[in-house]
Amino acid sequence: MAEFSIDPTEEVSNGHCLETVHQLGSESQKSFYLCSFHWLKVFRLIPSRKLESQSGRSSKGLLLSIKPFLVHFYYFFFLAHSFLYLLEVAANLSSTTVNRDSSVKNLKYLLYNCRYGFMVIKSAVLFLSFRMHGVRIIQLTTAVADEYRKLSHGQQKLLSILTVAITALNVVFSKSWHILDFASYDLSFHETWFEDVEVALFGQKAKLWMVEIAWYSLATPMIIVTDLAVVFVALSILTLYLAWRRINEKLAQDPSYLVSDFGGEWEHLRCVAEAADDAFSFIIFTAWINDMACAVGYIGSIVLYGAGNPPEQAYTLLGLFIYAIWNPICYFLPCILFDEVVTRIRRTVVGIIHEHVINLEQNSGSPENSKCWLRLQMIQQNILSYRPAAFTAWKFFYVTRNVLLTMCTAFVSYAVLLLQLVQTGSAEGTSRPEDGLSIYSNSSQS
User: CA 153: distance to chain centroid?
Assistant: First the structure.
């Protein structure tokens, strides 16, 4: 069986990837997976810049010809907007380090005031990650689409329903916390809309409606787009998970499959999984780092605002925390399922070989049995010596069930430490949980 591999030294200018893009685009109606890929292509998360410059020959009409320019123009403003939020976070951090009167108060100020900056910085980093690995994703999509077509109709339907459900939840979670944030003002919509916002970067105040226009036009669309791009990564990994599950089902139904086509199919899928890890590992790592930073900040704010007032701010931060935790579940859970099915296949192979060895020992003496025994021993050695098929976070660690356990332990320990910090500060009289601080000057003054 032919193996799949990606040559990292292959030049983009040879036109191979460009033809792949056109081929996948023309087949986008044949499967739900390719429709998802075509959706990423529409928003220019992929392909790379070189491929876009070459694909201009297929554009007809003035609107289509200027579309790449308009998209890149929008992305320029989005990255500039993200950079300003990054500077805003840095300005808030510097202001908290200057005032050392209350460590709890400064921590509350930093975590709450940077809640928007954390999200927009994450979307910018994910956007750049997809752009950097656009060529690899294009090449990988061809192989994963072949495996998707091999799935049964029921499995394809299940993946479609699951992807649509995850997409809907992502959209709901990405905006529900914003509604809670508006509710924390306890004012009418008109009064809230004209609230003053303190911009720490410039040391000036602006109206809320100005900030919201910039947020909804630049940050919100890209947050949703990058979150849905991660759903495509999850869909690709789930497709490979079902492909490996098909091998396990063949082994369970027909043990003779082990000595026929198993070795070639195993190696082929292992090469596809290895290429998928090369394409997605950096994206998974950057998404995980940003989500964990957001989750740590939000859970810290929840603990610090738990005794604060108004309580709506704690509800807002709880919504942000749920949103930050939901994203790692979207891309970690498929990786964990993939690791589990690969481990199950290896155990199944070892069990089948042991059963055959026991049967051969009972009927020893035949030359054919001796040759079969040697062949099974060679298969077992090859299976156990194969490089592991697993997904990693930029090669730093394998994504397994232990990762979720470690994350939960870290969050619980962090929350306990924060509670001890608040209680110690209250007992000493140096600091205590105060009323919720807001970036909006009117709310903070009240």
Answer: 27
Beta-strand (E) ranges in 72-215? 196-199, 204-207
pLDDT at 175 over 70: yes
The pair of structure tokens assigned to 275 is 């290429």
Distance CA 336, CA 358 (A): 33
The pair of structure tokens assigned to 37 is: 């890929």
Question: Is the peptide bond between 221 and the residue preceding it cis, with omega within 30 degrees of 0?
Answer: no
| Residue 204 burial by Cβ neighbours in a 10 Å radius (0-12, 13-18, 19+) | exposed
| Residue predicted with more confidence, 146 or 191 | 146
Nearest to 16 by CA among 145, 146, 138: 138
Token look-up 């947020």 returns 215
- Report which of residues 191 and 284 the model is more confident about: 284
Q: Is it the case that residue 76 has pLDDT exceeding 60?
A: yes
Between residues 163 and 89, the one the model is more confident about = 163
Return d(Cα 101, Cα 133) in angstroms, integer: 46
Apex CA 191: angle with CA 189 and CA 193, to 5°? 65
In angstroms, the CA 250 to CA 86 distance is: 52
- Mean pLDDT (the chain) is 76
Let me know: does 246 contact 150? Beta carbons within 8 Å: yes
Residue 144: strand, helix, or coil: helix
Contact 272, 4 (CB under 8 A): yes
| Ramachandran assignment for 226, one of left (phi > 0), alpha (psi -120 to 50 degrees), beta (any other) | alpha
The burial of 259, by beta-carbon neighbours within 10 Å (0-12 exposed, 13-18 middle, 19 or more buried), is given as middle
Read off φ and ψ for residue 216, nearest 5 degrees.
Answer: -75, -25
Residue 169 and residue 329: Cα distance in Å, rounded?
A: 12
For residue 135 the two structure tokens come to: 């060529």
